[in-house]
Amino acid sequence: MSERAHLPTGQEAIRVKGWRGAHRYLLLRRLSQAFFLALFLLGPWFGLWWVAGTLAGSRTFGLLPLTDPLVLLQGVAAGHWPEMTALTGALIVLAAYALIGGRVYCSWVCPINPVTDAAHWLHDRLGLPKGWQPKRSARLWLLAAALGASALTGTIAWEAVNPVTMLHRGLVFGMGFAWAMVAAVFVFDLLVSRHGWCGHLCPVGAFYGLVGTRSLLRVSARNRAACDDCMDCYAVCPESQVISPALRGGPGDTPLILSPDCTNCGRCIDVCSVDVFTFTHRFDARVSAPPETVNNARSQRAA
Ligand code: SF4
Ligand code: SF4
User: How remote is the CA of residue 93 from the centroid of ligand 1, in Å?
Assistant: First the structure.
């Protein structure tokens, strides 16, 4: 066990890298989330319709169509064949997330993410128990159920209750009932189930996880030899089950976090005071040498 295991999560990283260095990707993600929201708000608030629509379907500069592929898939299940523009928009979105990681949508774009992050932060501060932890596969079953419900009802079923769409539409066009859904997600994550919504139930996250199964952008525990078992990465990771295979792997095991559940949020990179983690691509399986190996090599060269 590390000597500094008693320190609150992230404090050692702040001491070593400074507050900004220990929150770099968190700050970038908040900027990214605000940027995507601002693009959609320019029209209704300032009459600048550079981007018209919502996350479900939009058009940028009247040219570039972007469609949420899950919305399109529900439409197809409901028996509505999409127009070519919507199909093109969905293919563009699919190609982008297949490349950079499907769940980049979750950590860098989705407006619910700051809500669930806030619930997690408060949950930790209050020292609450984990609570109910349904199987992580529950979100895949909910995804299948959403498509099944669309087929049965002939509607885009999940969108009627999807907190992601409701919050985004609410922020752009007025909140109304959306506040209740957002509050429900917050309270659920705070009091019922730690990381419960995004980590176990949300079918949108499950869908984007499937999209990013073979994505190029990956986090690597390249410097795992320097790990001092402080467990801070596990404490901040919204999908902590993805870390161990890369971090605890033996000499022949890849240091890459290959699970599609990883959201590429970069928090493990932020809070690691010895810089174990880094962003790289899926073909980069380099592992840094343990510190004693480097020191031995240096002393042999010096001798
Ligand atoms: S899991 Fe769902 S609600 Fe959570 S960040 Fe991803 S899309 Fe948004
Ligand atoms: S492994 Fe790192 S990048 Fe992936 S979800 Fe966890 S904290 Fe985020």
Answer: 16
**Long-range CB contacts for residues 64-69, cutoff 8 Å, separation at least 24:** 64/89, 64/92, 65/89, 65/92, 66/92, 66/93, 67/93, 68/93, 69/93, 69/94, 69/207, 69/211
- Measured from CB, residues less than 6 Å from any atom of ligand 1 are 106, 110, 112-113, 116, 164, 197-198, 202, 204-205
Structure tokens at 29: 């993600």
The residue extents of the domains of the chain are 13-211
- Give bridge partners of residue 53 from the DSSP assignment: 58
Residue 142: name the closest of 199, 215, 87 by CA.
Answer: 199
CA distances from 173 to 46, 112, 241 (A): 13, 16, 38
Amino acid at 87: L
pLDDT in tens, 139-174: 999 999 999 999 999 999 999 999 999 998 888 887
